[in-house]
Amino acid sequence: MNNFKSRIAKTFLPVLLSLLIKTLRVKYINIPDEKKRSVFIFWHSKMLLGWWLFKDKNYSALVSQSKDGEILTNVLNQWGYNVLRGSSSKGGKEALEELITSSGNSS
What pTM, to 2 d.p., does this model score? Predict the structure, then answer.
């Protein structure tokens, strides 16, 4: 992605996604207790909605170190997540350890 497209995506993508998601009708079932340590897992095709539903909660997210992961990292940072980068082939062990550590520190 060239520099101009990257800046446009970083600026407008989180806002556009939020506007799109706000048009959905969402029903919450079994809302997690924010005081308990939890792990949320999303299918790739459903992850943007999942991330958006729990934004601004001081949660951490594990995102791959790929170029697509860079785009998601920008969106999640703007939605209030502490983003950790890693995957099964690069930096995953360290990122998972940091994720476990940070889950004990969230309020």
Answer: 0.74
